[in-house]
Amino acid sequence: MNKTSVSNNDWNSNLYQEKHAFVWHYGENLLQLLNPQSKERILDLGCGTGQLTAKIAEKGAEVIGIDSAPEMIEKARQNYPQLHFQVADARNFQLSHPVDAVFSNAVLHWIPQADNVINSIRKSLKIGGRLIVEFGGKGNIESIIKVLYKALEKIGIDSAPNLNPWYFPSIGEYASKLEKQGFEVTYSHLFSRPTLLQDKDAGLANWIKMFAANFFKGLSEEEKMVVINDVEKQLKPKLYQESNWFADYRRIQIKAIKK
Ligand code: BEZ
């Protein structure tokens, strides 16, 4: 996804599915950490258009996918009509029956209210159930953010940090939040993963238009393009190689058990 619980619904689910497939391709690695077993009940939190939900189901698990964006859920249902998908807010959802595992890929950095999300997850898990998550960790897209702030400042927008919608915690910060709510963290890893953006020269501009829209609210198309062109110019020496853009992603992976 995935953008569970993010209020703006300006993501185009077709564009997301066609141009940002790297989101779930990388997520396949997280599936190994989940290691879904036949007959287990598993929640895919922030399922987006459902690709990883379907991979979990292929292992014989009974899986439900939730996402806050109705258009993502609509697309997920079209893609996988045999699976169960529901619109729900990660900060405040309830399941009718507790699950063996909660899985979430590339979602939690969209939700600064981490304590509320952890509380909902805790309530939805069985005792002994596991939480397996990956999302943007401390230092994620640091150079993109820095340059974006500067480019916005140049056109008179000084408030860019207040428009930042993302939450990129350290391992220590996130693990202590989990521990406070009765989880035992059994695995954590923070690592750099430069990520190839599709569409060659247009990769960074596409990424900004899709994921950084919050910074451009109220700006004209022309102002937006001035900022994007400036960001591209400043980042080219660092993030552009052999006709491709690479985002400076840093991921955090965590496995935690509900005690
Ligand atoms: C991420 O997956 O790290 C990410 C995606 C979009 C915006 C910010 C971060």
Short description:
The chain has 259 residues and is α/β, with parallel strands linked by helices. Helix content is 40%, strand content 24%.
Outline the fold blueprint.
Elements: H1 13-19, H2 22-34, E1 41-45, H3 51-58, E2 62-67, H4 70-79, E3 84-87, E4 99-105, H5 114-124, E5 125-136, H6 142-154, H7 160-163, H8 171-180, E6 183-192, E7 195-197, H9 203-211, H10 221-239, E8 240-241, E9 244-247, E10 250-258
Parallel strand pairs: 1-2, 1-4, 2-3, 4-5
Antiparallel strand pairs: 5-10, 6-10, 7-9, 8-9
Benzoic acid binds next to loops.
Account of the protein in words:
With about 260 residues, the protein is of the alpha/beta class. It has a domain at about 15-140 and about 165-200 and about 250-259: Vaccinia Virus protein VP39 (Rossmann fold), CATH 3.40.50. About 40% of the residues lie in helices and about 25% in strands. It is built from ten helices and ten strands. The chain has helices at about 15-20, 20-35, 50-60, 70-80, 115-125, 140-155, 160-165, 170-180, 205-210, 220-240; strands at about 40-45, 60-65, 85, 100-105, 125-135, 185-190, 195, 240, 245, 250-259. The protein has a seven-stranded mixed sheet with strand order 3-2-1-4-5-10-6, sandwiched between helices. Strand 2 (about 60-65), helix 4 and strand 3 (about 85) form a beta-alpha-beta unit. Helix 2 runs parallel beside helix 3 and helix 6 crosses helix 10. The longest helix is centred in the C-terminal third of the chain and has 19 residues, at about 220-240. The radius of gyration is 18 Å and the shape is globular. Residues about 1-10 have low confidence and may be disordered. Bound molecules: benzoic acid. Benzoic acid binds near residues 109, 140, 141 and 211.
